[in-house]
Specification:
The chain is built from two helices and no strands. With 52 residues, it is mostly helical.
């Protein structure tokens, strides 16, 4: 999940440098969502691991 977020972030940076604003904005949004999903899953797995 984190690797996908990093890939979309790199796509957003490259698209932004090349002047593709729409694609860069969309890729940035996808990267943010994937990173938030990663964080939530990471925290849940940490909490479940401690209780077991």
């Amino acid at each position: 999940m984190l690797s996908y977020a990093i890939v979309f972030l790199l796509i957003a940076i490259i698209a932004g440098v090349l002047g593709f604003g729409g694609i860069a904005g969309t890729a940035t949004t996808i990267a943010k969502v994937l990173f938030l999903v990663f964080l939530v899953l990471f925290i849940v797995s940490l909490l479940r691991g401690r209780k077991a």
